[in-house]
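S1.2 Input.
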Amino acid sequence: MTVSDWAFYRDGQRQDADYDAAIAAARDRQGFVWIRLHEPAADDLHRVAADVGLHPLAVDDALDQRQGTKIGHYDGLVYLVLRRVRYDGGVRDAGRLTVLATAEVVVTVSEGDPDPVAVIAERLEARPKLLGHGPAALLYVAADATVDEYTATAETFEADLTDIEAAVFDDASGNQAGRIYHAKRELLKLQRAIAPLGTPVRSLSQHLPDLIPAKVQTYFRGVADHVDRLHAQLGGYDEIIGSMLQANLAQLSVAQNNDMRKITSWAAIIAVPTAIAGIYGMNFRDMPELRWSFGYPGVMLLMAALCWMLYVNFKRRGWL
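S1.3 Output.
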């Protein structure tokens, strides 16, 4: 088991105390203990849960790798599972952050690298007044930090989307349909990762009087609004991708029309000497200028002149 840290907080301040004394003080409602575990083994997590009195079913949920973002309640305990993602050309699973909170103790189980717990601790300890609300403050900051990660991921995705958009309107870049469909697929993954967070956050912004004070519920409403903005932002990306796909198809259609006009123009130019040569190749006895010494160069000049006239005409019209 990797224990990244544990701390005892009273009135928004971290206190110096040994572990047993901190647990005893927390049980007397003189503060709360935060135990931070990073990728623990199942036996180790069960042992810690037994030491601090966490409900075993909540611990089982924390260990279940199939669990996505969700919230649950067991006998005065709130557990919050937050699925983290990152984007590096594709949406990747960055692990989970699970928060098991009672009025006396909070156990966080984090996965992935970097460990988000360091950021959460820094934010909490920088706001003693918020931290004074106890475990509810930790639940809020964990949810808020996760939404901030989602926002950063969405911004990275948007940068890639901007590159694709520029390539769609760059004549030299060619067909971008493959990149557009890839972006659509990754956007769907991002939406599936973020969408489940709305329900837990709204639940925490409503009625949990034993653990969530009214003032902290206000903070959760702010996180819920942030999630709603993210949904709207991703919906906007979806519309942009649809527009890019239509623009890409239009660009391909224009390119095909241009190719067809060029092919048609050259076919018309080639048809002139072909027609004249075909007529003279029919070997009739009485053909114009057959006995004229300048007949051959005259016909060649005629072909060249007609081809040049057609070329200039097509060029002026923009077909070549």
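S1.4 Remarks. The CA atoms of residues 99 and 108 lie 5 Å apart.
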